[in-house]
Amino acid sequence: xxxxxxxxxxxxxxxxxxxxxxxxxxxxxxxxxxxxxxxxxxxxxxxxxxxxxxxxxxxxxxxxxxxxxxxxxxxxxxxxxxxxxxxxxxxxxxxxxxxxxxxxxxxxxxxxxxxxxxxxxxxxxxxxxxxxxxxxxxxxxxxxxxxxxxxxxxxxxxxxxxxxxxxxxxxxxxxxxxxxxxxxxxxxxxxxxxxxxxxxxxxxxxxxxxxxxxxxxxxxxxxxxxxxxxxxxxxxxxxxxxxxxxxxxxxxxxxxxxxxxxxxxxxxxxxxxxxxxxxxxxxxxxxxxxxxxxxxxxxxxxxxxxxxxxxxxxxxxxxxxxx
Length: 323
Description:
Helix content: 25-40%
CATH class: Alpha Beta
Shape: globular
Largest sheet: 9 strands, mixed
Oligomer: single chain
């Protein structure tokens, strides 16, 4: 089904009227993004009792700043955070801090001054609070009226991609070739399949099946979809009509599946020249921390020395236990 026809049908169903909205040209720039940042960070308690998970430092900047930097480097100008009442510190981070900036300027600490100013200069930022059913589809639904009638980037605030070409730019390039829903994707080991939403595709990377947390025997693919997407506005229309599903949550993938069944095209975009790094639990967070530290010239030698020392100590412990 042509995309315009799908759009008209979903709009009519959602609003009960025949509306005609101008559809942006396929090569129109994608300049808006929505970041889902309303989770509780339960797996990081008690740290997340007072600090949003997205604001946990990854070396010397919070996790979510890496996400916003990727968006900005990909041409995103406007970022909408969907968060909640107790995440004011996230808003403060992407704001100015005149007192601190004046102090740093007065004492000549230019490097720290630039680092302090940088978050507030990355993009135009707006904040709304999540309302409605719990689930990863709700932030996209909440922000729909702000992103308007154009495709937008949808990102989870704790999913990172380390790559030469910013991954959001890779998603946008894929959208130019194959308009529709674009899903960030990466291959995983088969024993990790039950942990994720798995994607099956044809040879053109068009998605043919999405299975949430299957057993390895239930899927032929080891391609996982993670928290980075390009969503056309039709998906927001469908979310308005989507009922909460598993665990009484509003799932984005339920809306994407409906989009597919109504004739919409969905494509996977595997990470090129890099890798996806989730920070959703302490073990994966530690891996991301070491990954980014080892990529920094000012830290990599120190980190390598620490890793070698710890590895040697572990080896000594094993030797002592078997002696």
